[in-house]
Amino acid sequence: MDYTKALTPGIQAVPESSIKEFFDIINEMPEAISLGLGEPDFVTPEHIRKVGAASLLEGHTKYTQNPGLPELREDIAAYLRDRFSLEYDPADEVLVTVGGSEAIDLAIRCLVGAGDEIIVPTPTFVCYGPLATVCGGAVKEITAREENGFRITAEQVRAALTPRTKLLVLPYPSNPTGAILERTDLEAIAEALKDTNVIVLCDEIYGELTYGQDHVSFASVPGMRERTLVVGGFSKAFAMTGWRMGYLCGPRELVSHASALHGYGIMSAPTVTQHAAIEAMEHGMADIAQMREEYNVRRRLLAQGLRDMGLRCSEPRGAFYCFPYIGDFGLSDMEFCHRLLQEEQVAIIPGSAFGVGGAGYARVCYAADREKIEEALRRMKRFLVRLREQKE
Which residue ranges form the domains of the chain, and what is each CATH number? Predict the structure, then answer.
């Protein structure tokens, strides 16, 4: 049977993630130190786990309303109001999803069709382009450059706009660079968009993990709420990756369509997870603060360690990644990371896995305990000494 005739052109155009290929290798090396996986090393706080377990034991095993439990939607709306000055009606402007990933998928499927263009920064998380491609959209990448702190500019956005532009993705704080956008950056981008019908998709999954200053949401810029969809979730801030709990917020005229699609495809997010998320929202802010404080210590440890071995490393201001430049050794970033893994059993992710803008860099995650980070730095330093000797 010729399966190419069964599969859509869009799905055939989607390549397998090179991150997945790399983790397939890592999984065969149990002794390796992994600074690659973008996942908190903390377990979900105990009080949240207990509420989830109690939900099961109390028999809460049926569907909820399609958009999620009313109490959870109210909690999410209150959190966004108090934390980021965003106003959403929990009745029809907050949708509970199966992780932030489903929220992103819903937004793109609702907004992008054949021939539409989507503007995406590079380097960035890997999902936006492929999801748009499946829908028949065309991806236009704009490079976030190291000399600008890996922040895209309003001038770049303006230059990328065409009559076919449907969506701009703002994935900040950034995976993989650790960059954030400041209010002045957002206001300038807002000015570039003001006479367009472009919708902005803000992936703010790392919004609680910033260091030195609070995250600013694009939707809080005057006049931008009406054109912005905000994606958030519980995976990174509350260490709840396996629970799969996220949300999509925005104007009801957009969220209503995402909610309908969610109802057909998912029915509702898992009930037990929603109960755990309520506990996280209502009693988990101190947990975030404790984890953020520890991440900040590790951030400084890793960034300084990379610089001490002679690598150029921009200051990461959000998420839990450093993004050093590794292009001075006559190796591609993929070759560098493969050799580091094989020779020193340290796993980091090639920057090119996050788009053309990441070529020559590597993502190094500090969601690992300090002992592992220190040992990984020792091994990396040893590896770089050999590379420099071989280059001479």
Answer: 3-44+286-385 (3.90.1150.10), 46-284 (3.40.640.10)
